[in-house]
Amino acid sequence: MNKKTLYLIGILLTIIIGSILYNFLCGNNCSINTSNNASELVTEPVSDATKNAFMVKDNQGGLDLFIDDNLNFKISSFNILEPVATAVNSGVLNVKDYLLTDSLKIINITGFYSVAENNISAFPDLGLARANAVKNYFVSTGIPSKKINTYGELDNNMKPDNNNIYYGPVSFSVSTLNDTDLNEDNAVITIGNNLKEQPLVLYFDVAETSLNLTENQRHKIANLSRYIDKVEDAMIQIIGYTDNTGDRHSNIKLGQHRADFIKRYLVGNAIPESRIQASSQGSDNPIATNDTEEGRAKNRRVIVTIN
């Protein structure tokens, strides 16, 4: 027998012996492990998530849209998930064309939220924050903000999917204004007067980098947003102040830093940057004595109002 034949016989014997040892040592456990591995690959079934369509209907006109998709949000978020479906974007453009052909038509946007969510927005509730984000999306297509009303509403029946996405937590309706009805104008005027008389005041500790808003402060921010939506030339004015510690130049810079911080915060909450002015008065115009820590704390403030 030559070397080549012996070599091939050796390979064959190795395969046979290896197969016998595998079956002897592995036995039924091999099939069990294979079954377990297969079960690990099975994905969790998708939950029966709530899915609201994009529907806009004018009962007093010719608009009647139904799109089997909508604007979607992550749980506890007020940012619209991108990309927006092409059909939804086309629907918004149809709404724009409809509203612009009739000066008395307005659209109402209601955002929904649940008690299971954490409101990280500057608005009184996450539903209103979502409605405001949708409003800004509409405005980006050319719909004037004064033709849009926003609302927030609790809905604990909403159910997210397994990826914590809410599909369409928002609804729409179209209204026709009565051109002799001044209630809306009067309400906006009242908001403006109140914001001028009782502006939003935010106090700063040394090195503070976050905000913990009260319910009253959240309502003021909602009113600021509503006012600039309805009054074309209105601007949100932010002025930063400091106590008298340090020199005037440094305090002007610190006051501007605080004003810019609040501006970024409002922009991050879907309030248009172009409608916000931020400036500083440093340690000028104190509202309390700088001789005590309590007084200095009151002077470290930012005033947010409208002009």
Helix-strand pattern, N to C? HHEEEHEHEEEHEHEHEHE
Distance between the termini: 106 Å
Q: What would you give as the CATH superfamily of the largest domain? A: OmpA-like domain
Strand order of the largest sheet: 8-11-9-10
**Class based on secondary structure composition and strand pairing:** alpha+beta
CATH level 3 topology of the largest domain:
60s Ribosomal Protein L30, Chain: A
Question: Radius of gyration, Cα only, in angstroms?
Answer: 31 Å
Strand content: 15-25%
Question: Tally of extended strands?
Answer: 11
Please mark out the parts with pLDDT under 50 across 5 or more consecutive residues, or reply none. Answer: 28-45
- What oligomerization state is this entry in? single chain
Instruction: Summarize the biggest pleated sheet.
Output: 4 strands, mixed
CATH top level of the largest domain is Alpha Beta
Number of helices: 8
Overall CATH architecture of the largest domain: 2-Layer Sandwich
Tally of distinct domains: 3
Shape: flat
Subcellular location: Cell outer membrane
Biased composition (Polar residues): 276-290
Protein name: Outer membrane protein
Region (Disordered): 276-300
